């Protein structure tokens, strides 16, 4: 399984940048975020997914617009497509959890947001989380037994929650993709797209027989 997956990376190293590849057309991804999301960690994965045909929907705690955070100040805002409560009735294929210090702290303290994340876990659908985005996953208990990475200050939180933390730019453990920080976005986006394509084409969990891969 590992060797086959590694071959795919070498075969299409810039998969998410090729506008002619629309392998995920007809699929839907939810990006769960609220005010204070790290701007690049939402906008760049959104662009990468849209480049391969994914319809991306912003899900948040409130309607209207939410503000990003960049360079120690407020950044761009983005329109919210669905509130968390409305999103429960939608059939999403994938979930993305951007970071930012403010954003996940608000989400992890909202029962509906945590329950929304839990629906993806219950249905064994792929989840991609970067930087502080893993904090919401901690609240679900899903991280126990998983090999993951994150912003370095969350290492103790993840270890205490039962995860195995590693200092790598991107880690794949079954249907969970995690990265550390904005500097890892290129690897995060490439891996996220590859794993989502695997899931979509196989109609089951990609390469799930005991693999963990780090880069």
Secondary structure layout plus pairing:
Blueprint lengths: L1 H10 L16 E5 L4 E2 H13 L3 E6 L4 E6 L2 E7 L2 E2 H4 L6 E4 L4 H7 L2 H12 L4 E4 L3 H7 L6 E2 L6 H6 L3 E2 L4 E4 L2 E4 L5 H18 L9 E3 L1
Parallel strand pairs: 1-3, 1-7, 2-4, 3-6, 7-8, 8-12, 9-10
Antiparallel strand pairs: 4-5, 11-12, 11-13
Helix pairs in contact: 2-8, 4-6, 5-6
Can you characterise this structure?
With 215 residues, this protein is an alpha/beta fold. It has a single domain (2-209), classed as 3-Layer(aba) Sandwich (Rossmann fold). It has 8 helices and 13 strands. The protein has helices spanning 2-11, 39-51, 84-87, 102-108, 111-122, 134-140, 155-160, 185-202, and strands at 28-32, 37-38, 55-60, 65-70, 73-79, 82-83, 94-97, 127-130, 147-148, 164-165, 170-173, 176-179, 212-214. The strands form 3 sheets. Strands 6-3-1-7-8-12-11-13 form an 8-stranded mixed sheet, with helices on both faces. The protein has a 3-stranded mixed sheet with strand order 2-4-5. It has a two-stranded parallel sheet with strand order 9-10. Helix 2 (39-51) packs across helix 8 (185-202), helix 4 runs parallel beside helix 6 (134-140) and helix 5 (111-122) packs across helix 6.
